[in-house]
Amino acid sequence: MRRRYSCRSLFRRAFLFLFFLGIIGWVLVEDAQALRPFTSATDAGILDPGYLELEAGIGLGRNTRHTAHESSWGLPIAVFNIGLLENFELDIGTGFDLFREKIDGNRRRTLGSVAETTVTAKTRFFQGEGSIPSLTTELTLLLPTQRRELLSAPSRKVGFTAVGVATAEAGLLTYHLNLGGGVVESPKRGVGTVGSLLWAIAGELPIGKNGLTAVIEFRGESVRGSLPDNTALGGLVWESPWGVKFDAAAFAGLSRGSDNWGITVGLAYAFKALPWLT
């Protein structure tokens, strides 16, 4: 007999999972470069060879547009960044998604599934300093590992995106610019693959000398045949005395294709995992 868990039970397990990861990070930690809690924006930094960086968190999104009554959870969301060469790293993202929607009357349907899996090759072409931007490219495979009921299209086709990233400083502010696109399967049956446009603008600003940083992000995704998905996010990141970064943020939807609002909390840290590469 399949065991069923309540949303509260899943959240409790996800928080315990993050706590466990935090304890591990306290033992293994090195300085992290991860850009949690941003939804899409990435930076132009590359991990040193031999290091592994873990980004983990939980998230909640709520959508009530167009008579929809939907909630989605990431329990948890995880990204593994692996430094392989001086100017190259490999990033693997996955997680567990829980989706709940209102159907007939007061009836609700809950579906759980492994999240979409991403595999990203990140290459740095120029390393700037200060106001001179560093430049990288990210080439990503989108693997449809979700349950078929959670896919936007009826078949399982691998998607691909390519994004250019620039990171620079303006005084105390560090900002990140992302622009790119890709090929994904159309949500409309029988159309095949269509193009997509991806963009993000993000900033980080230290608050005092206590390790606290304010973050902000504007990002968007437009897929042919779908409503644009644009959001704005704001939050805080705290770099603890033992090097683990903790974060909390909230976002609001700016277009009809995005969730109305959402929240996320998480952590990030790096450690030497492949010493033979250093």
What are the salient characteristics of this protein?
1 helix; 278 residues; 13 strands; mainly beta; twelve-stranded antiparallel beta barrel
Question: Summed up, what is this model?
Answer:
8% of the residues lie in helices and 56% in strands.
| Strand count | 13
Contiguous helical run count: 1
Order of helices and strands: HEEEEEEEEEEEEE
Question: Going across the major beta sheet, what is the strand order?
Answer: 1-2-3-5-6-7-8-9-10-11-12-13
Shape: globular
| Measured distance between first and last alpha carbons | 49 Å
Mean pLDDT: 83
Query: Helical percent range?
Result: under 10%
Estimated structural class: mainly beta
- Low-confidence segments, given as residue ranges, are none
Q: Radius of gyration from the CA trace?
A: 19 Å
Strand content: over 45%
For the largest beta-sheet, the strand count, sense and barrel status come to: 12 strands, antiparallel, barrel
| Assembly level | single chain
Structural commentary:
By secondary structure, the chain is mainly beta. It is built from one helix and 13 strands. It has one helix at 7-28, and strands at 51-63, 70-85, 88-102, 108-114, 117-126, 134-143, 159-170, 173-185, 193-207, 212-223, 229-239, 245-253, 261-272. It has a twelve-stranded antiparallel barrel with strand order 1-2-3-5-6-7-8-9-10-11-12-13. A hairpin with a 2-residue loop joins β7 and β8 (173-185). It is globular and about 55 Å long. The N and C termini lie far apart (49 Å). The relative contact order is 0.20. The model has no long low-confidence stretch (mean pLDDT 83).
